[in-house]
Amino acid sequence: MNKILIPVDSSEYSKRAVEEGILMAKAFKSHVVLLYVANISINFSRFYEINLPQDALQEVIEEEKKQAEIMLKLLKETFGDMADKVETIILEGNTVDEIINYSKQSDVNMIIVGSHGFGSILSKSLLGSVTSKVLHYSDIPVLIVQ
Questions:
Q1: For 117, which of 8, 29, 145, 146 could close a Cys bridge (C-beta 3.0–4.6 Å)?
Q2: In the chain, where are the structural domains located?
Q3: The pairing of beta strand 31-38 with beta strand 3-7
Q4: What is the model's pTM?
Q5: What is the pLDDT along the chain (146 residues), one digit of tens a residue?
Q6: Which CATH superfamily is domain 3-145 in?
């Protein structure tokens, strides 16, 4: 397993996925990509209702990306002596589309994603929308961490 993709956000579930990613990366001596997606559609729908100008929306997205950079740096540091094999990437767009497209274009061998994971039935309501869709649309193995 040469490359592991770990999509992250600021949730506890993402932190658990990173913890599992550390174990997998050490076991297989894998390169790791920590990916954050700034979801424009969420920001747009949230601010469209109050008619904010486009430049104000872009400011919100830029602030989100700055916060993501800080988070990614801290997560990368958790890899310790393997941090040199960890790449951090921030993309803009639909979260699921960006995760799937990146995995296809970058020769990723596995995706590790966190989920709240109530119960054992794999469904949108139990896994969460992003996790469920990544599982459904990915052509490569997806490890779901609860």
A1: 146
A2: 3-145
A3: parallel
A4: 0.86
A5: 999 999 999 899 999 999 999 999 999 999 999 999 998 665 455 555 556 677 777 788 889 999 999 999 999 999 999 999 999 999 998 999 999 999 999 999 999 999 865 544 444 444 568 899 999 999 999 999 98
A6: HUPs (3.40.50.620)
